[in-house]
Design brief:
transmembrane, heme, mainly alpha, monooxygenase, single chain, 285 residues, Cytochrome p450, 2 domains, 6 strands, two-stranded antiparallel sheet
Length: 285
């Protein structure tokens, strides 16, 4: 709300929790980002071209541009914010998707067991799944995709700024307008998916069991501003969730009473806190 209507930040009190949120960012910078920036900048200055980390590479590029007289917005503030984005956007969203996956497995135990059967057949029990196994596990991939579609953890993605006057379906969007997308309008579209509110992984499989990639599947947004962490997130989700189902059976903390599928609305939409049991699977070999 504050991003869309910046003047709200000047109201007394903290009605929208934005001031507390901003203070948390400042605390994160002071306790985490700033010490690392100081350490890696010092190491870069002492070691010359040791570009073995993001901070050193950023400092190197900034100084190269400054020495060449190039105009740049690269500075300490941008570096600090980039680090925050990498850790917050790069971890919280993936963790939230994992939580929804676990919650759905509590509600659909037959789907969970079907994933395990695929893992047992294609991977076995004596080793952990690797990225080389990903093409051989279409059903698991379909369940992960259905989790991302149905949970829609970032329904408004990130706001954008229109850089030029644009006419879209008869509507004029002036330059400088802040635009907020609505990914729910795609991920939960009835015309596209038929039964968008049902959890049905088979919608991502063809008649031969191969994985489908519908163009309407856009949990990472699309176009030039697509999520930079898409590949990393896909890898993390596959490796973690494959190993999780291979090793454990997920059950409600109270038998026969799975937690409600309710979201907490915010920057992202995680499920309400819930409890579950992890029952270690027995190696049948």
């Amino acid at each position: 709300m504050i991003n869309v209507f910046p003047w709200l930040r000047h109201l007394p009190g903290d009605m929208f929790g934005a001031k507390r949120y901003i203070q948390c960012h400042h605390d994160l910078d002071a306790m985490f980002s700033d010490p690392f920036i100081m350490q890696k900048t010092k190491e870069y200055e002492e070691g010359g071209d040791a570009l073995d980390n993001f901070i050193s590479a950023y400092v190197h590029e900034r100084r190269r541009k400054e020495q060449n007289g190039e105009t740049t917005s690269m500075d300490g503030g941008h570096l600090r914010r980039l680090l925050g984005n990498l850790f917050i956007a790069g971890s919280e969203t993936t963790a939230t998707t994992m939580l929804w996956f676990m919650l759905y497995m509590l509600h659909y135990p037959h789907i969970q067991e079907k994933i395990f059967a695929e893992l047992e057949e294609k991977v076995g029990y004596n080793r952990r799944p690797t990225m080389q196994d990903k093409p051989r596990l279409p059903y698991l991939n379909a369940v992960i995709m259905e989790t991302q579609r149905r949970a829609s953890i970032a329904p408004f993605s990130l706001s954008r700024l229109c850089t030029a006057d644009v006419t879209l379906q008869g509507y004029v969007i002036p330059r400088g307008t802040r635009v907020v997308t609505n990914l729910d309008s795609v991920l939960l579209d009835e015309v596209t998916w038929g039964d968008p509110f049902n959890f049905r992984p088979e919608r991502f499989l063809d008649q031969y069991g191969g994985l489908l990639h519908p163009e309407e599947f856009v949990p990472f947004s699309m176009g030039r501003r697509v999520c930079l962490g898409e590949s990393l997130a896909k890898m993390e989700l596959f490796l973690f969730l494959a190993a999780l189902v291979q090793r454990f059976r997920l059950l409600p903390s109270e038998s026969g009473q799975p937690p409600p599928q309710r979201a907490q609305f915010g920057v992202t939409c995680p499920p309400e806190p819930f409890k579950l049991k992890f029952i270690e699977r027995v190696d049948k070999s």
